Amino acid sequence: MQSVKKTITYGLLALGLSFTMMLSAEAESFTSIKKVAELGEAKAQVTLGDMYSDGEHVPQSYTEAIKWYRKAADQGYAEAQLNLGYMYEEGHGVRQDDTKAVEWYRKAADQGYATAQVWLGLAYRNGQSVTQNEAKAVEWYQKAANQNDAEGQTKLGGMYKAGTGVPQSYTEAIKWYRKAADQGSASAQSSLGTMYLEGTGVPQSYTEAIKWYRKAADQGYASAQGWLGLIYHFDDNGAPQDYAKAAKWYRKAAEQGDELSQSGLGSLYLKGTGVPQSYDVAAKWFRLAAEQGNMLSQHNLGHLYSNGYGVPKDYTEAAKWFRLAAEQGASESQLALADMYYHGAGVRQNYTEAAKWYLKVAKQGNVKAQLSLGYMYKEGQGVRRNEAAAKEWYGKSCDNGSQDGCDEYKILNQK
User: Fold this and answer.
1) What is the pLDDT of residues 138-180, one digit of tens each?
2) 192 has a pLDDT exceeding 60
3) Which residues contact 13 (CB under 8 A, 6 or more apart)?
4) pLDDT digit string (tens) for 266-279?
5) pTM to 2 decimals?
6) Helices (DSSP H) in 39-61: which residue ranges?
7) CA gyration radius for the chain?
8) Which of 93, 148, 216, 388 has the fewest CB atoms within 10 Å, measured from its CB?
9) Burial of 207 (0-12, 13-18, 19+ CB in 10 A)
């Protein structure tokens, strides 16, 4: 037993000594870099700036990072100019200033620094402290892409796909996406997957789409993970339906905050496909997506609240979520909101509001809304009584297969 204690003690001492030596080496490394930086060596100054920015072996300090980046940037060191621009863009250690950010990006870009060229292209693409100029954005993306910069190639591919700043060319989009994808760019791999999924610029192929999405997804790229979830979720896309795989990929993306995947995962839990059925878990994922503005999840959350599935039954909450989805054009939510106004469930009864929402849905061909609107015109609820309008809406519902609509139309037609 004594021998074991000695072994453990010596082991801990060795471990402590090793850790102390590591810290000593790190401190020595920092000291060495600082001495070289103080002699004016630009690369060492950037390294020192990075250490302060990241809090690596030193207390984190944007102010110190800025100081060392500026020393190197003033010597014309492109990487320092890029970093200094980034600090201005983010407001790290300095007042946020897009104009100064772009000035520093341009200095680095003019020296041929590819990352700066991409960021300057983004500034022109978004009109960030410069006049928005998509052709200029393409020009800078092209410069970076010609240096085999994967991000520049990906951005350039996106411009060709959209026809933004250049004539639309799926062939060129594919070319640049593939160059970046072959370098391992997850964004380009995902974009290439989408081109194969859509059959734009290449023959449509779910096999190729899945291949490229998988490459990106394996790198943790949320969008590609979500697309894989979607492909495996539905059986109308030529790929074998596999709910378990759909849940797997949705979850990976959902946990990164991808709203479409959160919505998809919620749908699987709602129905119990690929996962154990759970209204509680469905509500959790729908809420996360709904709070990001996902229309389908807002509707589904409204549905859960109106029925008390996985959440307390609450018509007021239901109306809130139905309204958010309805305002984005979700017809089922518009109909649900109209019903709530008509019956005074979760909102004050208001026939005028009910008629407004029924009209929106009725124009989309919804039979129930057409019937309801016909009745409201016949009775003068929320609208002026108008038998001609009532007859019109009953007739539309009849044409869409409602026998009730046909019967009501007949009654009015015989008057």
Assistant:
1) 999 999 999 999 999 999 999 999 999 999 999 999 999 999 9
2) yes
3) none
4) 999 999 999 999 99
5) 0.84
6) 42-54
7) 30
8) 388
9) exposed
- Report the C-alpha gap between 194 and 177 in whole angstroms: 11
Query: Please, where are the H alpha helices in 58-166?
Result: 62-73, 78-90, 98-110, 114-126, 134-145, 150-162
Cα-Cα-Cα-Cα dihedral sign, residues 188, 192, 194, 195: positive
Handedness of CA 383, 387, 391, 394 (dihedral sign): positive
CA atoms of 269 and 265, how far apart (whole Å): 6
Contacts 24+ apart (CB under 8 A), 377-380: 378/408, 378/412
Instruction: List, for residues 315-368, the tens digit of each pLDDT value.
Output: 999 999 999 999 999 999 999 999 999 999 999 999 999 999 999 999 999 999
Q: Where are the alpha helices (DSSP H) in 91-126?
A: 98-110, 114-126
Torsion of CA 69, 70, 72, 75, to 10 degrees: 160
Count of other CB atoms within 10 angstroms of residue 88:
22
Give me the DSSP letters along 302-333: HHHHHHTSSS---HHHHHHHHHHHHHTT-HHH
| Assigned token pair, 158 | 């996106």
Give pLDDT, residue 16: 45
